[in-house]
Amino acid sequence: MNVVEYLVEKCDADIEQVGSVMFDGETIDGAPPIWCAAAAGYLPIVKFLVKAGTEVKASFWCVLRGAGGGATQDIVHSTRTRRLTA
Q: Is 21 strand, coil or helix?
């Protein structure tokens, strides 16, 4: 988490930058950071990205899509109830 905070807060990393990620043996193109965090089950990073200003409307669907790829139930529950404040 410290690395994510550093990249966003100190290096001005683009929290909406999409890229390609290898997930469960498949390459997924166009995956935003919040999708990657959700798919990997990292609820603290999902919360941090939302707090940092990730576009919630678009990200909400990305998180749900990512949740199907192995995210924890906490992430699915948090996104469905919109309780994404840190």
A: strand
Average pLDDT (34-61) is 78
Region 54-61 average pLDDT:
62
Distance CA 78, CA 19 (A): 24
3-state secondary structure of 57: helix
Tell me the C-alpha distance between 69 and 83, whole Å: 21
Domain regions of the chain by residue span: 2-81
The predicted model scores a pTM of 0.68
Name the CATH code of domain 2-81 (choices 1.10.10, 2.60.40, 1.10.8, 1.25.40): 1.25.40
